[in-house]
Amino acid sequence: MKTLKISDETHAKLTSVVGRLMAETGQMKTYSDAVEALLSRSVTLSRDLLEQAESFIKGNSQLGYATKEEFIEDAIRFRLTWLREKKLPDRKPKKARKKHDITNTR
Fold first, then answer.
1. The domain containing residue 74 runs over which residues?
2. Residue 33 sits in the same domain as residue 64
3. Which of 42, 60, 77, 87 lies 20 to 30 angstroms, CA to CA, from 70?
4. Which of 59, 50, 52, 46 is nearest to 103 (CA)?
5. How many other C-beta atoms lie within 10 A of the C-beta of residue 34?
């Protein structure tokens, strides 16, 4: 067992994650469970892409996104729905995909 020093703000956020995990599972959870969940569920995005998302959210407050996480979840759901409706044939993922500028509308 290791001890970590964290800020009060980080502690509050981690406590929130523990609460969400308990609500999801109906079981008691620990801070260790929260850290493991965060590590296993995390996705690394480029700083540029996150800045674009945050800028879009700020510039389009009428859309109702309070956080970048809400926006990203909605974007993933939208893309999955769109791809399912297209009934695209199965394909292997490409090694490197072209980055899209979310501020560019078609």
1. 47-86
2. no
3. 87
4. 52
5. 20
